[in-house]
Write a structure and sequence with these properties.
Elements lengths: L14 H21 L11 H9 L3 H10 L4 H4 L1 H4 L7 H22 L1 H22 L10 H22 L8 H17 L5 H18 L3 H10 L1
């Protein structure tokens, strides 16, 4: 029997999730401290802008690659680097909190390697969807597309769980429905961006990958579709 005094105050987070969160928060901490002149001197004020130019995803960059047939590594890296660059401390903090919550559940169910596959595949597909469908010229930044991918993975896991319990599986989509509703509300009130395109693409990617990654998940889905 474990004595309550010896129990950790917080539930342990899988190392891979903590590592991703540390990178996100660490990068933002450097930018924030630099912007206030705490580190880096006067040049540090422009660190965030320099990172946006080098690592954010821009739809025109995708258009250029498709038109010219050239895919330099310096541009391809944008598909996977933009989740680690944020517009502000609040932006990074919200992404980090959601990453810890969703990542913990997905990593414990699927393991570290599958979590990383969902994270970076959702980042890639989210950027592609944004580049092909968005009309905005604003850069795509922030970890929300891959975090939505983890939400997609969690949704599928919950979908399976509710099915085994004989409960309504539509309840599994309550979280994504609430988040999209909040985005819609903020968009109507404050004129939101088109980042939601990448978020939805990330969610679909995470859900679809989880169907394949969960042992027996594909067979269960086919069985449901046949019935």
């Amino acid at each position: 029997m474990v004595h309550p005094i010896n129990e950790p105050p917080l539930n342990p987070v899988p190392p891979v999730v903590m590592a991703l969160c540390i990178v996100i928060v660490g990068v933002e901490a450097v930018f924030s401290l630099g912007s206030y002149g705490v580190i880096g001197g006067p040049a540090a004020v422009g660190w965030r802008l320099d990172a946006l130019e080098r690592f954010a995803f821009f739809a025109p960059v995708l258009d250029w690659m498709l038109q010219t047939g050239r895919y330099p590594a310096s541009e391809l890296v944008r598909f996977f680097s933009y989740p680690f660059v944020h517009g502000s401390f609040i932006h990074a903090a919200f992404a980090g909190v959601m990453l810890l919550a969703m990542g913990k559940m997905v990593a414990e169910a699927l393991g570290a390697v599958r979590l990383l596959a969902i994270f970076f595949a959702s980042s890639l597909v989210g950027a592609l969807a944004y580049g092909l469908l968005a009309t905005s010229q604003a850069p795509l930044i922030g970890a929300f597309p891959p975090v939505y991918g983890l939400i997609g993975g969690f949704t599928y896991l919950l979908w399976l769980r509710l099915g085994m319990l004989g409960e309504s599986q539509m309840r599994a989509f309550g979280l994504i429905g609430m988040l999209l509703g909040i985005q819609l509300l903020f968009g109507l009130l404050f004129g939101g961006s088109q980042d939601w395109i990448a978020d939805i693409a990330g969610f679909v990617t995470g859900f679809a990958l989880s169907v394949v990654m969960v042992p027996g998940g594909w067979g269960r889905l086919l069985g449901k579709l046949r019935r």
